[in-house]
Specification:
Helix content: 40-55%
Radius of gyration: 20 Å
Structural class: alpha+beta
Mean pLDDT: 83
Strand order of the largest sheet: 1-6-5-4
Length: about 200
């Protein structure tokens, strides 16, 4: 029997078949953080290169943010703070919306330090639904960012680029989780609570 719908009651013929918990693997967490940092610079470079055809009028010396004094420094700090806040708002908002559509129940939104999370800890989600709710913030924000780069005033282009690249960097844990899930059966049910993702599969 296959379970294709979200449920709050784990079927009797399902049992736990692994968990992905970065709190129990600090080494992997550190590796992912470093990978996310590399992804930040890599995606930023690719996005900057793409401006030659996305927004060619931007690619000029006068439009590049160069820190030459305190005014430019604080401008850069403000841009970073606003971009991080916007990324968190967009990411968790999209997670919240997709989980609400999937479960018809209000997800839980929380913060742990500078880390925000959105989960439906009482719901077992089909693998396909879990994959989509995890990918949509990455795909959606990237698509909106590419469109925005073409449409926004030139002075807002750096902010849009930073939002997109930060979103990629913040998605590294999601991508690692999805990679791990690809080795699980399609009929798996997924239970997520903050940093811990548990997989349940049909007993053999």
């Amino acid at each position: 029997m296959k379970q294709h719908k979200p449920t709050q009651l784990l079927p009797e013929h399902y049992q736990e078949n692994g968990r992905f918990d970065l709190n129990e693997n600090r080494g992997l967490g550190m590796i992912l953080n470093l990978t996310g940092l590399g992804l930040l610079f890599g995606v930023g470079w690719l996005f900057l290169e793409s401006l030659s055809f996305l927004r060619p009028e931007y690619v000029s010396a006068e439009n590049i943010l160069i820190i030459t004094g305190m005014r430019e420094f604080w401008r850069g700090v403000l841009l970073l703070v606003v971009s991080v806040a916007l990324v968190l708002l967009l990411r968790e908002g999209l997670h919240w919306l997709v989980l609400w559509v999937i479960t018809k129940d209000l997800p839980k939104l929380g913060f742990r330090g500078f880390y925000a999370y959105t989960t439906a800890p009482e719901w077992y989600l089909p693998r396909s639904a879990y994959v989509w709710q995890t990918l949509i913030p990455l795909l959606g924000i990237t698509a909106l960012g590419v469109i925005a780069v073409v449409l926004v005033p030139l002075n807002l282009v750096p902010g849009v680029m930073l939002v997109v690249t930060l979103n990629f960097a913040m998605s590294i844990n999601d991508l690692a989780t999805l990679y791990w899930l690809m080795g699980k059966p399609r009929e798996s049910l997924i239970l997520e609570d903050r940093d811990c993702v548990q997989v349940f599969t049909i007993e053999e």
